[in-house]
Specification:
Elements: H1 11-14, H2 18-31, H3 36-42, H4 47-58, H5 77-91, H6 103-122
C-alpha cells in the first residue's frame, strides 16, 4: 500500500464543487491506493457514500465532468423546413435534385442561412472539451 498524499495545491478552490470532490475521492481510493475510509475522510464523504460512488463508476452509471444533456431543440428549424419541402416534392413525383429554381429563390435561401452561418463561424470555442 502506498502512502496517502495530501490533496494537490488548489484543492481548496475546488473543494465545494461536487464533481471535483468525487474525482479526488475516487482518485485517492482507486489510483493512490488509499483505503476506502481514508479516501472518504479526505473528501468529506462517509465510507458508504464513497463505496456507492465506486460501485456506480465501475458500473458506468457515474458521469464526472460531462453534463448529462443540454435542454432545448434537438433539430434545426430551417433543416426541418427543407426536409419537409423535399418530402413534399417527392410526394408530387418530383426530385429534389435537378429541380429548376430561379436565382432569386437561391438568393433567398442563402440569405436565410447566412446569418446563422456567420454566427456559427464566430462562436467562441469552449476552454475544455471532455473526452470519454
Amino acid at each position: 500500500m502506498t502512502a496517502v498524499s495530501a490533496p494537490r495545491p488548489g484543492w481548496e478552490l475546488l473543494a465545494g464543487q461536487v464533481n471535483q470532490r468525487r474525482y479526488e475521492a475516487l482518485r485517492a481510493y482507486l489510483y493512490e491506493g488509499a483505503s476506502l475510509q481514508q479516501a472518504a475522510d479526505r473528501a468529506d464523504y462517509t465510507r458508504a457514500a464513497l463505496a456507492s460512488l465506486v460501485r456506480d463508476l465501475r458500473a458506468g452509471k457515474l458521469t464526472m465532468f460531462a453534463p448529462p444533456g443540454v435542454p432545448g431543440r434537438k433539430s434545426a428549424p430551417k433543416k426541418d423546413a427543407a426536409r419537409a419541402r423535399v418530402i413534399e416534392l417527392r410526394r408530387e413525383g418530383q426530385r429534389a435534385m435537378g429541380v429548376e429554381v430561379s436565382h432569386d429563390t437561391i438568393s433567398k435561401i442563402t440569405d436565410e442561412v447566412l446569418e446563422e452561418l456567420k454566427a456559427w463561424q464566430v462562436c467562441p470555442l469552449e476552454a475544455l472539451y471532455p473526452v470519454v
